[in-house]
Design goal:
Catalyzes the conversion of 1-hydroxy-2-methyl-2-(E)-butenyl 4-diphosphate (HMBPP) into a mixture of isopentenyl diphosphate (IPP) and dimethylallyl diphosphate (DMAPP). Acts in the terminal step of the DOXP/MEP pathway for isoprenoid precursor biosynthesis. Helices cover 39% and strands 19% of the residues. With 316 residues, it is of the alpha/beta class. The protein has 3 domains: 110 residues, 4-hydroxy-3-methylbut-2-enyl diphosphate reductase, catalytic domain (Cobalt-precorrin-4 Transmethylase, domain 1), CATH 3.40.1010; 84 residues, Rossmann fold (3-Layer(aba) Sandwich); 84 residues, 3-Layer(aba) Sandwich (Cobalt-precorrin-4 Transmethylase, domain 1), CATH 3.40.1010.20. Bound molecules: but-2-yn-1-yl trihydrogen diphosphate and iron/sulfur cluster.
Length: 316
């Protein structure tokens, strides 16, 4: 029998589910228990096909817009948040709804409202079209939030009054890219008001830090996550920027390009905040099947954040 080649797998930690994802999934499960199927979910509850498929099997129906839901079934809003018009419409239709927006996204919504009430125009750093960006921009009237995606954009924007500005950010951005954009904003608009650093959440920050810690030990990095998952895609970029040229997003083990990593002696594995640990186990097993594997953990932080589900689901 052929001997398997040796390989060290570095498992980055923290990785995988964050408190907001955990809570959002629980909300769907508890809503199904409380009200029975079908329960509607506006947008993927979190950006992971495996999670969405498992909830669909239990009776969740995923739609993109509220007008695809009947009036008489409960609807849940995804972890990424929704524009104000969405719950307003649900109330108008007298629907039962549960908002699974991550509390750390809601915190940014509140910040935006507070700055708006103080008469400041907002600059949002984020990715155009992402549901979190649509949700956060949709907290304020049209024209009150200007989106900036890159350092280059900063020179191009034309705010109403450069002296009366504040910035907010998407929660799942690259920490380093965002720092550069914030610096460019502060250079062009010295009076701009903002949070102490940015609004990037603890989970995004911690997962990027652990990728940086494994990057110099590995020949290839696999990030378990979905192509529409912002935080997961940022981990791939962080891996590349930290010197790991082969950094690749995979949804699960069957997407691993084994030829591309042939010859590697050390591979890093991490998972985005919406990727379940069973998929990490699956990837580790796929390596074990092909290699004489040693697994090492690279842990850069411990997380103990937990968010409560809304009261309506805690009541019998
Ligand atoms: O925002 P992102 O695309 O990273 O969403 P996700 O569902 O992959 O991760 C969790 C969240 C939020 C908000
Ligand atoms: Fe909340 Fe951050 Fe998780 Fe998004 S990635 S759900 S903002 S904790």
């Amino acid at each position: 029998m052929d001997q398997k080649p040796p390989l060290t797998l570095y498992l980055a930690a923290p990785r995988g589910f964050c408190a907001g994802v955990d809570r959002a999934i629980k909300i769907v499960e508890m809503a199904l228990q409380k009200w029975g199927a079908p329960v509607y979910v506006r947008h993927e509850i979190v950006h992971n096909k495996f999670v969405v498929d498992s909830l669909r099997d239990k009776g969740a129906v995923f739609v993109e817009e509220l007008d695809e839901c009947p009036d008489d079934r409960p609807v849940i809003f995804s972890a990424h948040g929704v524009p104000k018009a969405v719950p307003a419409e649900a109330r108008r239709r007298e629907m039962v709804y549960v908002d699974a927006t991550c509390p750390l996204v809601s915190k940014v919504h509140v910040e935006a409202e507070r700055h708006h009430a103080a008469g400041l125009q907002m600059i949002m750093i984020g990715h155009a079209g992402h549901p979190e960006v649509l949700g956060t921009m949709g907290q304020l009237p049209e024209g009150e939030v200007i989106l900036v995606e890159t350092v280059g954009d900063v020179a191009l924007i034309a705010p109403r009054d450069p002296e009366r500005l504040a910035f907010i950010t998407q929660t799942t951005l690259s920490v380093d890219d965002t720092a550069a954009i914030v610096a460019a904003l502060q250079a062009r608009f010295p009076a701009i008001v903002g949070p102490a650093k940015e609004d990037i959440c603890y989970a995004t920050t911690n997962r990027q830090a652990s990728v940086k810690a494994v990057a110099d030990k590995i020949d290839a990095l696999l990030v378990i996550g979905a192509p529409n998952s912002s935080n997961s895609r940022r981990l791939v970029e962080v891996g590349r920027a930290a010197g790991c040229a082969y950094s690749q997003l995979v949804m699960r083990a069957d997407q691993i390009d084994w030829r591309a990593i042939a010859g590697s002696r050390a591979v890093g594995v991490t998972a985005g905040a919406s990727a379940p640990e069973v998929l990490v186990d699956e990837v580790v097993q796929a390596f074990r099947d092909r290699y004489d594997l040693s697994v090492e953990m690279v842990e850069t932080a411990r997380e103990n954040v937990e968010f409560k589900v809304p009261r309506v689901l805690r009541e019998a």
